[in-house]
Each structure stands twice: as C-alpha cells, then as structure tokens.
Predict the structure.
Amino acid sequence: MVKNILKILGILILVFIIILVVKAMVISSKQVDVKEAIPYKIDSMTAAAHLSEAIQIQTVSNQEQSKTDVKQFEQFHKFLANTYPSVHKKLKKEVVAGYALLYTWKGSDPSLKPMLLMAHQDVVPVEELTKDQWKYPGFSGTIADGHVWGRGALDIKNQLIAIMEAVEFLVNRGFVPRRTIYLAFGHDEEVGGQGAQAIAKLLKDRNVSLEYVLDEGGAIMEGMLPGVESPIALVGIAEKGYLTIKLTVKGEGGHSSMPPHHTALGVLAKALVSVEENPFPKNFDSPARQMFEYVAPHMKFPLRILFANMWCFKPLLKWQFEKSESTNAMIRTTAAVTMAGASEKENILPTQAWAMINCRILPGETMDTTIAYLKKVIGNDAVAIEATPWSNDPSPVSDISQGSFTAIATIARQINPDVIVAPYLVLGATDSRHYNALTNQIYRFCPVKLKSEDLKTMHGINERISISDLGKSVKFFIALIEKTHM
Ligand SMILES: [Zn+2]
C-alpha cells in the first residue's frame, strides 16, 4: 500500500518536473526577427569630433538657478547652429524657458500624430575632489582609446548629438518625414527639469497629442542578469515615482539630566526602525514581469526553468530578487532614510526631531498609498508625516503592443544583432515624466552598450562613450525617424 502511494507520488513529481522542463524548452522568443542591416555608412569620427566639442562647452546646471553660467548655454546653442546648418535651415527652432530648445520638423501628413525625441543639454559638475582621478580632464572632450571622454559623454550629450547628426544627415538627403518630429532638449534636467516642463506645457497649450516620446533611461546592458549571455537592450516603459517624506516629532525640551523615558529623537528613531523593518510589499507584476517574459527564452538552463515557470516559482523569485538592492528596487516601493536632525547641543533635550525618507514608488502605487503605508507601519500619531515638494507619482506603464515599441526594438537589434530587447522599469527620474499628459507611450532608451561599472561613470569619474557606439546611435536615430514616418 505505502509502496504504491510512493510510486504514484514519484510519478506525479516526475510528470511535474517534465512539465516544468518542457515549458522552459518550448517558451518562444519575443524578439523581432531582423534580417537587413541599416544601409547607411556613418562617419563616426565626425560625430565623435562634434560630441567632443559639445562636452567642452560646460553646460553645468546648478540647483541655484542664479549660479548657472548661462553663457555656456548660449555658446552651446551657437555650436549647434554652426554644426548643424541644415537642421537649422529646415526645422523651426524655439527657445523655451530661457535655454531649453524645441525644434519642429514638419511632417507631410497632418493626420499622423507627431513623435518627440528628447535629450538634455545640461550636465552635472565634475567634482573638485575627484578632478585628478580622471584619465583625461572632465571637460576636455578628449578623443582617445576609441572613446570620447568627458562629462556628458553618456549622460546625455551623446544622445543629443546622435539625434542632431541623424536629422542633419536626413535633411541633407532631402528626406521629409510624414509624421511631424519634435526634438526637445531641456537645459536643467539634473535640477528638476523646468525646461522640459515648459516645453510640454507649450505643446499642451497648442493641443498637441504625441504618438510617442523617446528619452534617456535604459541602455544595452552587458552581464546584467545571471544565465543570460546576450547583452540586453533595456527599453524603459515606466519610471518610478519620487516622494520625500518629512517626519517630525515634538518634545518638551529641557535639561538632559532629567530626561523622559523617550525623547523626541528616541520616538523618531523608533519610527525610522519600523520603516526599515517593514519594507513595502513585493509586487512581481509588470514591468519586472514583462522584462523576464522577454528575457526568459534566452536564459540558460537551469535558470530558464525558474523564469519560464513564473506561475510556480514566483515566491522563490521574489525571495531571490529581494537579496540584491538593484533587483529589490524593481519589485517594490523603496524607502531610504537619508537625513535627520534634533537638538543643537548634546545636553539639551530636543524640542523637535526630524528625518527625511526618500521613497521611490512602484507603478501601480501612488504618493497617497505610500504615505498611508508609512503611517500604518509607524503607527504613532506623535510622529507627523508630510510630503515635501518635488514629488511625483510613478509614470503610467507604456503599452508595448504598439508599433513604436516594435520600431525601437527592431532598430536596436539592427544596429546590434547580438542583443535581446526587453521592457524595463527605470528606477530614477527622467525629463520624460513631464510629457505624461501628451502621450501614453513614453520610452526611455539610449542605444549604447554598458557594463555595470560604466554606470558609475555617469555623474562619476571617467565618463566616456565608445566611438563605435556613438556611430551606432546616429544610425539608430536615422532608422527610427525613417521607420516611424510610415
Ligand atoms: Zn540624464
């Protein structure tokens, strides 16, 4: 009897394993089949020389607007006009909110909705402390070792130059887009994006509705996921929301020689511990799930069995994702305690203690649900909770069944046939969030191959782009403009 039960159990387990393995074997690729390459020959060295010049103009944005060296932006505009004469002859140029640029390339078919290509002109500073650690000075725009070096080479003058090179190339060939194309280059993305906001408002006031927007945010990542050999072209289809919460606790004050059982700071500390110990709930559904649906068919065994059978292994995957900071951030709203303060002297009881918690909100949740969750886990009315300005809800999730996603995915593989494309959740914030009211299709992608150590060069030391990637980026935008006019 027992023997028979064991036998049946054994057979069931075997059948179950076979189902898992078969599912992993038959899971079909979602990649677009790409046959032909992009036909044009691009002069990458000229594009590199132009990027080098762009880097040398120090368009550094400053949190205090009045401290921004506006002459650099004026010079940058002059550089663009001189370098891309055909663009400036054919397209309408408008300067918005001081230094943001909006170019309009009128399409021949007014029934088609326009598309909008984005980048930003500004860069973060080269930190004085790390200045000497650069292989080539941060604003030199040195061309060496197959790369263009300097601040903005990856974030994101590369994209701005690639777009301009592509448009100049197509205008010179007499190309006329059927769809109107906007080029929108903000001047202060690194400090809030007033420029992009003003452009979006201007277009909204003109009743413009966009087919889609393409901004920075994702890239082609090498060695990002275990079990995947191909580089992954991560096309951002959503970005997390941004919310900084201020916690305040009031106290009696007085001399620290006769303290109460808990000071204001003690109460606050307890609240902060509660927040850290009760992370937001995990949510493995889109866009993280969508990413793995695209990647799973290209994973090696045995990992592929896990990802091809998410219906069964979801709890295990969630647990695995939680272990690393970068994957954890993909599946939940995060809360980072970043600043705090209390009494001004060690022997005075604080009359007030405060702390800041920076939250990044997962699509599907909102600023309100985030605040409600924090209130619940803190569970103490003595702790006042308020949102600070500069907060925003997560973006909507773009619909990848649309033609624009397919166009981006196809061209990404045309310029790099070895990559697989996957939708992706952008963890930081981009200027594209200001365009949410103009379209429900916002993509965030830069066709550049990066390793994880390259990510640190953005806003860090030795920022650089390979000349080959820059040339491919130009091709990418040529093909994108050609394709989406259809
Ligand atoms: Zn950027």
